Amino acid sequence: MGGKFFADALVIGAGPAGLGTALALARHGVDVAVLEMQDRIGAKRRGETIRFDREMDALLGGGFFEKQTIRRINKRSYFSHTGLSRVDRTISNPNLIISWPDFIQAMAHTAEDAGARVLPASTVVGFIREEGRIAGVRAMVSGFMEEELKAKAVFSCGGCEDPSSRILGIDRTGMDMPISKQLVRGYTGPADRFEYHFHVHGDSLTIATIFPRAKGEAEIIFMGYARGRKPRTISFEEFIQAHRVFGERIKGTTPFYSLKTTIPMGRMISMCCPEDRLVMAGDVLGHVQSRGGSGIRTSFLMGYTAGRLGAGALQSGAWTAETTKKLEQSIQGSPPMRDLYRHNLIYSTLRAGIFGLIHEPKQMDRLWPLLRVALR
Ligand SMILES: Cc1cc2nc3c(=O)[nH]c(=O)nc-3n(C[C@H](O)[C@H](O)[C@H](O)COP(=O)(O)OP(=O)(O)OC[C@H]3O[C@@H](n4cnc5c(N)ncnc54)[C@H](O)[C@@H]3O)c2cc1C
């Protein structure tokens, strides 16, 4: 079966951006289907901490965050490379610990209740074009053979793995950083705070974090920032050897979930609508979490905005180059995008500026009075 009209709008990816997009499209009367490559929605975990956001909570029906919260944590401790400097913070809007699969599935149900179709085991492999313009996707739907699914518009929200980057030849160099995550049991370190441990090695900076969860579980994140052309990487095992406090904290824990992936912390793609009838939102665009730990919220709100404004474009009649131009301008001028650019400018520039000055461990202690201002 080929070339059948499948939906007015197709969304690639059931993450926060794709589900936010689908929810807005469905609420604005657009027939929308979400294609998700995983067999089970939310099976491949990403972030599991979020801070309450009134707008996102209201869009998801109110009380959504409360239902998804496993526990609240409002303390953070940062340790310099040598462990000689430390700063403790208490934040007013606490971090909420969530379960990614439950959170994403609940979001998918909200989108379905609004009328969206969410199809797991459906992988997009290419776009179809008619008269040079995007007219749908090629996808393996529900694990079956490849099909051509026609639509009036495609919303590409596949995160770092998004197929549009590959198909359109978008260069992601300097955008996606390696990150690994473990969920462990048997954590006996401080349960009331997030911990951040820094490692400096020439042109590379590595951060290992511990986010306690419930019942002795914790999330361990290990992330490297490459600053130079030839960053030196450190393995998790070497990090444990080099950082006594971190090593002690995770001693005796047993991993029950492990993931190696990338996170776009490097830079952003400036276009949300790179072609007529194609809109991108979320991690696919690059650096969407300027403040760190805000990617879920930002991706969802960007997606919702893209869906809301995209619905208007779809309902305006024929989608011309002028429609694309107007849509691009309205997405770029929307509050989530303006907030993101403003925060990127402030936080990323500040962090990059300070971290750019640090090339060996003791330098970090010397600059700690300056650095601690940026560590919130
Ligand atoms: C280890 C880790 C920890 C993080 N911690 C936090 C945190 O604590 N708090 C926070 O706010 N943010 C955190 N983030 C960032 C946050 O998870 C992301 O910013 C957010 O998930 C981006 O949403 P998205 O919808 O754009 O992409 P994703 O969540 O990546 O969703 C994209 C979806 O598209 C699907 N997909 C990809 N390609 C295809 C295809 N060809 N066909 C069909 N489907 C496809 C994928 O399977 C996936 O489900 C973390 C990220 C990582 C990797």
Descriptive report:
The longest helix is centred in the C-terminal third of the chain and has 21 residues. The protein is α/β, with parallel strands linked by helices and about 375 residues long. The model has no long low-confidence stretch (mean pLDDT about 90). The protein is built from twelve helices and 17 strands. It starts with a strand and ends with a helix. Strand 14 and strand 15 form a beta hairpin. It has two domains: about 190 residues, FAD/NAD(P)-binding domain; about 120 residues, D-Amino Acid Oxidase, Chain A, domain 2 (2-Layer Sandwich). Helix 1 runs parallel beside helix 8. The radius of gyration is 21 Å and the shape is globular. The structure holds flavin-adenine dinucleotide (FAD). Flavin-adenine dinucleotide binds next to helix 1, strand 4, strand 8, strand 12 and strand 16.
